[in-house]
Task: inverse folding
């Protein structure tokens, strides 16, 4: 039972973060707040992968001569770190394009509130 | 309408927590993604990288080796994504103003 708790509590925090991000995207009316929710959701997914990469008694994936690399258990999993590096970069690109779109929306309609925006677009 | 959204979110969280109970524990050395061979019997990519990264590329940082050597074309595609995003930002923000049309 304690093993289960210690092994899984990180997942629970991450899933709470995921739900908070989803809450921001679904429930908030302000488009900037929706964007903040999207970023929180992205961070939750990135944290999930980084948590999965860890191993007990292992060190960071930088090879030093004292620790032999023939034993895979000596170094934590490098693959999720690499993939999440890519995901962070793509997330920043997405965020940049979204913010540019928000600037244009504000310039044209003078609001970022969703319900006001729908009224003004009619 | 609002409570339906809250209900959906709670159901989502419950489903996710239920699914997380089936995951291997954090930092478990016997998890399928930490073994040398996957359950299907194929070799595990991450362990291959740990064993062979220094031999193949002579760079101590395994993450760098995977990013720039083993998956170099993937990184090139990623740079294309950044370039596209930058171009899109530029095109959106600096488009010429319409002179004759009344804007909303």
Result:
């Amino acid at each position: 039972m304690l093993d289960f708790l210690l092994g899984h509590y990180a997942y629970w925090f991450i899933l709470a973060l995921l739900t908070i991000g989803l809450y921001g995207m679904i429930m908030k009316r302000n488009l900037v707040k929706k964007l903040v929710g999207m970023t929180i959701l992205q961070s939750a997914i990135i944290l999930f992968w980084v948590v999965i990469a860890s191993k007990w008694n292992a060190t960071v994936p930088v090879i030093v001569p004292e620790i032999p690399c023939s034993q895979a258990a000596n170094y934590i999993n490098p693959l999720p770190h690499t993939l999440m590096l890519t995901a962070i970069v793509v997330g920043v690109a997405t965020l940049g394009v979204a913010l540019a779109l928000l600037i244009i929306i504000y310039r044209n309609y003078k609001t970022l509130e969703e319900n006001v925006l729908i009224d003004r677009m009619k | 309408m609002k409570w339906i959204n809250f209900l959906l979110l709670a159901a989502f969280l419950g489903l996710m927590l239920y699914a997380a109970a089936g995951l291997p524990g954090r930092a478990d050395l016997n998890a399928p993604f930490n073994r040398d061979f996957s359950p299907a019997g194929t070799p595990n990519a991450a362990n291959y990288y740990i064993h062979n990264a220094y031999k193949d590329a002579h760079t101590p940082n395994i993450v760098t080796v995977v990013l720039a050597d083993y998956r170099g074309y993937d990184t090139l595609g990623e740079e294309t994504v950044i370039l596209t995003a930058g171009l899109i930002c530029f095109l959106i923000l600096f488009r010429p103003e319409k002179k004759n049309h009344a804007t909303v």
Chain B touches chain A through 50 residues (CB under 8 Å). The CA atoms of residues 7 and 13 of chain B lie 10 Å apart. The mean pLDDT of chain B is 87.
